[in-house]
Amino acid sequence: MRAFALVGLANCWTGSSSAPAPPVASTTATAQLAAPSLDLRFGVRGRAVFDIGPGEHELHAVVALADGSALVAGHAFFDKRDACVARFTRDGVLDPHFGSGGVARVGTSEAFVRAVAVDRKARILVAGYFYAPGEAENLLLARLLPDGTLDASFGTRGVVTADYGKSDDRPSAVLPLADGNIAVVGIHGTRAGSEYEMYTARFDDRGRQLHVTFVDLLPGREFVSRAKLDRDGSIVVAGYAVGDAGGFVARLAPDGTLDRTFGVKLVPELAGGSVWALAIDARGRILLGGQTATDRAVAVRFTADGARDRTWGDGGIAGGAEHAGDQLYELLPQADGGAIAVGFRGLASNAKTLVARFAENGAARWRVGDTAGDFTFAAAADLRGGVIAVGMTSPRDEIRGLVVRYR
Description:
There is one protein chain. The strands form seven sheets. Strands 1-26-25-24-23 form a five-stranded antiparallel beta sheet, with no helix packed on it. A four-stranded antiparallel beta sheet has the order 2-29-28-27, with no helix packed on it. The protein has a four-stranded antiparallel beta sheet with strand order 3-4-5-6, with no helix packed on it. 1% of the residues lie in helices and 47% in strands. It has 407 residues and is an all-beta fold. It starts with 17 loop residues before the first strand and ends with a strand.
């Protein structure tokens, strides 16, 4: 399970030009699109490197704040690798008023963040996992105050841990709920890690676990990679299964079990591929993004009731070129009915950032970054009309966190 973060990648195109995908709708609509470009006012020519010392740094989650700053979360090397949250200013530098020099350490060692959110009181929620001595991955949930200090009223000095068995428990999302509780959605290994199922855990405002529900959405190995709150407060999950099932999207009932009125909607075109992006637009339409077995980045759109949206792309699927080595990790709905997609193209030291703008009908324009070794794993839209994306960069075989801003 520890090796599934990068799936089925191959290096292909390079360059930073805005290159169109094969037509998925009207070529006129495509010609009028422009892919987002780097905001050269941010960091150094649109990029900021997260590097607070020697050792591995990665960023896997981001929240854009109202003042133009951004919270980024992942892990860095302190005395050991450990979970952390950092705040970058709108100019792309660490905010010295947050945590210690702009960084707040969350775990105790060998801990990794996979999700971050801000609740209605501006408190910061992070979910990740840590390695207990002699054990597999266990859940880590923490809450920080807006200034980056751990919230002592939550759990034990701001941190809650949970172990749901001898196999891995890796979270995919942390969701502040309207009733003040917190939902964590993730995957749990069964049968000594040979299969996986979804779990949904709920915690109260003080970090006490209220219940945990395990659901086997599909037979075999399924990976729930993303979860979002729908407009009615229900939870929508997405992921992929090993085998012929491909990608999937499902809606959960309030108790964390499967909402059988919605069911599990399969995307067999993603068999052998992966799903890492999920979004819900203002009309309740569900967007799912990932990579096919032929290394093509695709975005699939469903109507609010779970039917394939045939007005999007070709039969509800829009995307880039076959064998391009592209992977989508985030989809951000736009007011015009389209979406911005963020991810990367290529593998290892040859990888480059990837960003695309989709029109309402699924036509798209793509842009590939200039810097080799750059990956982006998550993104958020800010109030200035830009996009903040985070991931990692690997210059000189050193892994460092990466923050970029598009406009």
